[in-house]
Structure formats: structure tokens, C-alpha cells
Amino acid sequence: MNNSSPDIGRPPIWADRLLEFFCKGELLEEVQGDLAEYYFRTYKQKGRRKAGIVYWYHVINFLRPFALKKLKSNANTTTMIRFNLMIALRNLNRYRFYSFLNISGLAIGLASCLFIMLFVMDELSYDKFHPDYKRIYRVASDLRFGNNQFDFPVTPAPMAESFLKDFPEIEMAGKMRTYGTGLVKKGDAFYKQKNIFYASQGLLDIFRFPTVYGSLENAITEPNTIVLSHSSAKKIFGDMNPVGESVKIDERLTVKVSGVYEDLPENSHFHPELLISIENDRGNDNVWLGNNYYTYFLLNAQNDETGLEAKFASVYEKYFAPQLKEMVGVDFDEMMASGDHINYYLQPVADIHLNSHLAVEVEANGSMEYVYIFSAIALFILVIACINFMNLSTARAAMRAKEVGIKKVLGSVRGQLISQFLTESILFAFLASLVAVLLVVLLLPLFNSFSGKDVGHILLDRPIVWVYLIAAVFGIGVLAGLYPAFYLSKYQPTAVLKGTYQAGSRASWFRNVLVVFQFATSLFLIIGSLTVYSQLNYTQNRDLGFDREQVIILENVGNLGDKNKVLRNELAKNASVVNTSISSFYPLSDFRSDQPFLPEGTTSIEESVSCQVWSVDFDYLKTFEMEVVSGRDFDIQMPSDSSGVVINETAAKRFGIEQATGQKIKVLGDFGVQGKKEFTVLGVVKDFHFESLRNNVVPVLLFITKYSADHMAVRLKTDNLSRTLADLEETWSRVAGGIPFEYQFLNQSFEAKYRSESQLGTIFAVFSGLAIFIGCLGLFGLSAYTAERRKKELGIRKVLGAEVFSLVRLLFTEFSVLLVIAIIVAIPLAWYAMDLWLNDFAYRVGLSLGTFVVSSLIVILVGLVTVSFQSFKAARSNPVDNLKYE
Amino acid sequence: MKGDVLGEFEEIILLIVGVLGQDAYGLGIRDELEKQTGRSAAIGAVHATLNRLQEKGYVESGMKEGTQERGGRRKRVFQMTGLGKKALTDSKDVRVNLWSQLPDLNIGKV
């Protein structure tokens, strides 16, 4: 720790600016001095973040009368602004009902916008915290062999080192390879560790993670060395400095800790928690045919990637072609001539989270599409709220007309009236923003829980949010106030004061357009959320080709070694256990391995089929309850089945197999599967889904392996799940001796796979609810106004014998027409947009008429109920009250 | 006028200014307050109180060269005035007087 250095940054600059803005000049120096002194003290004791927050707190606390600058109040403009503010506040107080509608609508709109802005800012901030993020790139591949297309962010192992030598543009190169989850043993204690990777020293040099203990320089250049994240270190070693300590990983690799780095923040595309020296993974050092390594480059100059990418191909060929010839027996030029291609390209590291959606991403990424959708929703809601504001202001024009008339008679020019109305709307927007901030602070935990993020810190870390908010207050204030301001200030004083002025009639068409827009938007959002829900429902209830209920996946089975047989036998004695199967390739797992195969009687690469190679055991199909559609399942009684294969329907189609009758398929190239190169097709299993339903099912081959795997699927049949789980745990701890009992439910993993869709569904539903609510606030105000305006007309009608019902109908008709127009406008747009979204899914629902009918009914119902409050009140009132003043 | 009466917080701050003597400035006073009473106050609150005390004439102030951790900024040091000292004495007298009239100090003791 280097506490002695005085150079530890500076207090938050925006807080300082705020202080300079409001604090009296003669006080500023001492106050700033005190605060700075306090800041540095807190910094040393509690770190930068805490010190920043404390600093802000104390600055805000200086907003006291004694410290504020005195406003010079003799200038004309300030007098006018003060006067305008006073009038505005009086109006606010006098028309409390409208003020409430206005401010609450705008506040909800602003709060929604703020939330979405926080969400979007968080999404856009991914990987921008790396010191050199603008120069860091990841290599991704776009490969085509035969009929098989591969898009993934992994490369051959030697690419990092070779390209570093071949290209002067590359300053540093680093790579890592997934190790996955492992058990770390310290002394006699086991710790489960996720996100383990093999990594080269280059990776640490490129990303320069902040160090907590030891050093990251040359930390993992030697074999059997590791570095790990601070939270992992805490979990395994407690609060001590673990540098130099030894641990054992998965009972086979003893390693020494050489450094600890700070945890990567949430907004990172990867979160490696333990990095093992790549020296322990040298097997692929010269292999250019496989792609298993994430490769990162630090380039010399920014934005140089296109020039560099163009040169990749020729260099790549230099290494790749000889190996292709030697191992697979295929000539590189011939292959390219047949239409195949090999492209490696660079992804800027800050683009990965939102724009990279390849197979085997390190972690599930976000989506630019959703960022756009959410931003659009936020904008819609804000527009709806602004429309409320404009509508209510113009509708109230009648009541203000006399005020305007008198002011004009007393000599106000139009500009002054405009500025008065603008002041008023800015004041409203400002009050709404205060309420909005309060709402955001209160609802933050709720928003975090359904968006799966932690966005609150952005409010403190990124003061630009407040700048946006203030800009929004003025923008909305001016925009929403502009129309009423110009409209109201136009009145002819003589007409108004004589009483010949027809209030509001000229503006009513404009108001109607705005109401139509509000309801069309609400309807659009409702249709959107219903469609998202029905698609979600469809994916979750679809026949996946296997039964995901009552299956648990036990982890850490690989660490049992030969004891896994004991465990299986013990589990078989349990009446609730139907079947067990050991394999790391279960549907929904992230294990993937691809290889090209040749159907019987073919030899050329064009005819090969790239298949996923899944290593399973004899009980696999039975445990997952997958259906064999032709041929047979593996049979443990048949020793020859170890060179047999069960394929899925998609693979059968690609191989041209209709009935499984012992056809042969062959591995293309020198690498066998399980040491064999030719396999007999025993059976065809019905297609089962194992990736997001956005993707089509790809060919899958199931092989029997004699090696153990890390996972065991257990099919249960039980009514008392907690009891069965307790039994399983008891059996496990008897057999496993200290290795932790960990499991997941298959159906829960399935739901996790669809989290982004279900989040979209929730956000859609919440915000469409808000949109229609704000719309209704406006409609409520408008109907109150209409009822008020037609009070006398209704009175006369009633005196002449009209029934309450027919009066209500009279008021309804005006709004019903608007709602119908809104429906006619919204439905085609919603149809088009939702169809576009659904087309992203390989397996999707159709758009149902029901959705549209239900959504329209909701809008009509809610709209009319809102209107009816005021209509009934007006229609039932005693006509004498309304007419006696005439 | 309420202005002439010493508030509880004002009294404590004024006492601390007296106790600190030569080097009583905003943050220092706040630290001493925390040390002596366990109360932690916002820096702004301390400054506001000092400002009020000065308006009442209980303290006077001058500027003093700042240290490096203040970014070289000067600080305002406060000193108790005669009037301040009198205010404290008055306040104490009132209390002592009241205490002496309290009938039985053993109430509540077992």
C-alpha cells in the first residue's frame, strides 16, 4: 500500500463545480479547503468511492442560506422571472387538480426515462473501464468448411504468439482458454471455483487488472502458477495475503498463487476468477486446425483494424495450409476454390457485449436491439407525458383567457406573455423532475431485481445523468410549453373580455390528434408486451424432445474418480431415483465440440457434415427420456456399441439416412473420436433442443465414452423433493468424502436460458402499463374539462328532459371516436413491428387476432372508464346549479 | 430576540473554539466535536454555526496559510471574543442556578 504518496487523485470535479456555482466567493476558499482535507483523509481510510460519496454529501450539505451567493435583484429580467414564478405558483395552487395531473404524469414519464437511461448507460459502458480499451481487440472467426458455417470468437492456440511476431501493428497479444468450474483444495478444505481459465501472461499485460496482492508482472509465465480475483482469494484464503500459497485444483494440479487482482466490475464481457498459467496447457501449441482459444490483441494505433484484418488471411494460410494437407489430406487452394472461406476479424473489446452474438461467447451478452427498443419505449412515454401537458394547458386556455386579456389591456406585449407561460411550464417540469428523482431512488431496488442489474451507482459515478435531467427539464418545459404559450398569447383582448371568444374550439383538433397519438402508442406497447409474453410462454411449454422436469444435474462428479460407480450403485438403491447418467453434454450445458463427418461412400470435404460430438454413457437417452424414432438405443450388453453412434434427426437428414440400419459414418481427418475413426449408426433420436429457441437444431452425434465426466444427470420420480434431495446429499457425502454436494435443476437452467426474453417481457409490461396510465391521467383531465365546458349545455338538455344515460353517451361519443382512430392507426404498426421481432426466432408463435382484440378492448375499456367518472358526475349534477348564474 | 440566546449546538461549538485556542478552524472543530462528544456533524453544519456565532459577535476570525492536503487553500481560524466568553458564562450561570434548585438529585438512583 502506498499511502505516503500525496498524489491520490482529486475530489469529484462535478461536486466542486456545484460548490463553486452556489457558494459565496468569500467563503469558497476555506470551505473548499476543509472539504478537500476531509476528502483525502476519507480516501486513505475508506478508499476512493466512499470518499467521493462523502464529499458529495458534504457539498450538498452546504446548500444553506448562509453560504449561498446573493442574487442581484435589481435587474429587470430577474424581477420579471420572479414575478412569473410567483404567478406560476399561484396558478399551480389555484388549479390543484390539473397541476396534480400534469406533474404526476410528467414525473412518472421522467422516472421511466431515467430508469431506462440508467439501463442503457450501463449496457453501453461495458468494457470501457480497461485502461487501453480503445486499442484492445478480440479475434473472431468466420469459417466455412464444406457446408458448415462456423462463427465463434475463438481461434487456434498459436495465433496469439505467431501474429505478434508477424504483424508490427500488434503491440501485445494474449490468449485464454476455458477451464470451466473446478474444485480448489487448500489443506483439507474444498472450494468450488467458477470461471477458471488458462491464460497467457500477455492477457494480463493487455488488460492490466488493478492489483491487490503481489504483482501481475510475469505472474503466470511459469507453469503451475495462478492469479485470482480478490473475492475468490477471500473465499479460499480469508483476509490474508495469499501470494506464495499453494493450492490443488481438481485433485491433480498443484499451483502457487503469484498475484491477486480486483474483481472485474459487472459491466465486463468476461469475469475470470482464477487464471492458470497457459504453460499448463501446451498440448495445442502448434495446432492450427482447432479453434479453442480466445485471443486478444493490443494494437499500436487506434482504429487500425481493417488494414490489419486484410493481411490476416495470407499469414494464416502460411501456417494452416501445410497442416491441412498433412492431417486431413485436403489441399488449401482446392478447398478455397470450392467456395469455402476462412476469415478472422477483430472485434473492439467495447463492442463485444452488445454486438457479438457468436457461439461459445465467454458469457451471455446483451443486445443492441434491446437497447434500441428500450430507448424507444422511454421516448414514447416521455412524449405521452408531454402531450398530457400540452393538452391540459390548451384545454385550460378558456379559464386563462381573461387573465391574458387583462394583461394585454394593461400593456403586456406578446413576448412577455410567452415568457410567462414558458416559466410556468418549466416550473412544472422542474417539480416533476424532483418527484421523478424521488421515485427513482425509491424504486431502484425493484428495478434492479427485474432487470438483473445494479444501476444505482451510475447516479453517483456519472454526473452527466444530472446534466441530462436538467437539460430534459428545460427541453420539456420549453417544448411542452411552446404551443400553449403561443396559442394563449394570441388572444385578442377585446374578444376575450367581451365574452365572444369561443374557448378552445380552434385548438381542439390539435388536441384530438395528440390524444389519438397517446392511445395509439399505449395500444402499441400493450400489443408488444402480450406478444412477448406469448412467445415466452411458447418457448417454455414447447416439447423440447426431452423431459426437463424432475431431473437434477449433480456437479463435481469428475472429482470422485472411480468412486462414481459406487455412487451410482448407491443411488440406484433409492426408490425415488429412476435413472442416472454421467455426461457433461446434457441439453442446456455449455459444452460444445464440433467435428466434420463423412456419410457412407463419400470422401470429399464438400460432402462432409459438421456435427456436435457428445460423449455420453449407456443410460443417457433413458435418463433424459429422449425418444428413439428409428433403430435402437445404446445397449450395455453389446460391447460393439462402443463404436456405435446415435444421431439426431437433423444429422440423419444431413447424412441422407432415413432408417437407422447400421450405416457407417467416418471422421474426416486424422483426429478420431474416442480413438476410433469409423462408427455404426445404431439409432436416430428425435431432435431435442439444447440452445436458445432462436437457433435451429444442429446435427448431434452421441458416442459412448469410457471416461468419466464432471456431471451426473439424475432422473427422479418423487412427490417429496426436499426429502429426496436430503437423501441424495446423505448418499453423496457418504461416498464423496468432503467434496461438496452441488446440483442444479434442469428446468431452472432452462428458464435461465430465457432470462433476457423474460426481462424484455417484464419491462414491456411495466412500461406499457405506465404509458396507458399516463395517457389516462391526461384523458381524465380532458374529460373533466369537456364536462366543465359543456356544463350549461348539459343543464339545458336535462331541463328539457334528457336522461342521464343519453347525456353520458353524448360525452362518450367524442372520446370513442378518438379511441377508434387510435386503434386503426396502431394495429398495422404493431403487427409489422412484432412480426419483425418474432422472425428472430427459429421457433416462434404466430401473431394471433386475439392479442389485438384483447389489447384494443383494454384500451377502450380503460379509456371509457376514465371518461365516465367525469361524464356521470356532470350528467347527474343538478341542472339548477349549472344554470342559476346565467 | 432568540438571536441572543446560545443554542445547544452553538454552545458546544463555541466551547470547542475556546478549547482549541490557536488552531480552531472548520474541519478541526468538527473533529474535536466528534472526539469529545461522539457526535458527527456535516461540515456544512459546523460552518453555518460558526457563521452565526460570528454574526452575533461571539467569535472573530482571520485567515491562515493552508497545508498541502488542502490543496494550498487558506483556512479561516476562529477565536472567542470577550462577548462570547460572557455568553458562555451566562449560560453556565443559568444552569448552575437551576441545578442548585433541583430538589432531590437522587431521583431514580437505587
What does this entry look like structurally?
The complex is a heterodimer of chains A (886) and B (110). Chain A has 28 helices and 22 strands. In chain A, strand 1 and strand 2 form a beta hairpin. By secondary structure, chain A is of the alpha+beta class. Chain A starts with 12 loop residues before the first helix and ends with a helix. Chain A is 52% helix and 16% strand. Chain B contains four helices and two strands; from the N terminus they run αααββα. Chain B has helices at residues 8-20, 26-37, 43-56, 82-101, and strands spanning 59-64, 75-80. In chain B, helix 1 crosses helix 3 and helix 2 packs across helix 3. Chain B starts with 7 loop residues before the first helix and ends in a 9-residue tail after the last helix. The chains are: A alpha+beta (886), B mainly alpha (110). Chain A binds chain B through residues 6, 27, 29-38, 40-41, 57-58, 61-64, 66-67, and chain B through 25-27, 42-45, 47-48, 51-52, 63, 66-71, 73-76.
**Which outline of chain B best applies?**
elongated
Q: What strand line-up does the widest sheet of chain B have?
A: 1-2
- Biggest interface between protein chains, with counts per chain? A-B, 22 and 22 residues
As a whole number of angstroms, the C-alpha radius of gyration of chain A is 35 Å
Unreliable runs of chain A:
1-6
Largest pleated sheet of chain B? 2 strands, antiparallel
Please give the largest β-sheet of chain A.
6 strands, mixed, barrel
Count all strands of chain A and give the number. 22
How large is the radius of gyration of chain B? 17 Å
Helix content of chain A: 40-55%
Number of helices of chain B: 4
**Major sheet of chain A: order of its strands?**
3-4-9-6-8-7
Name the structural class of chain A: alpha+beta
Mean pLDDT of chain A: 84
The computed structural class of chain B is mainly alpha
SSE pattern of chain B: HHHEEH
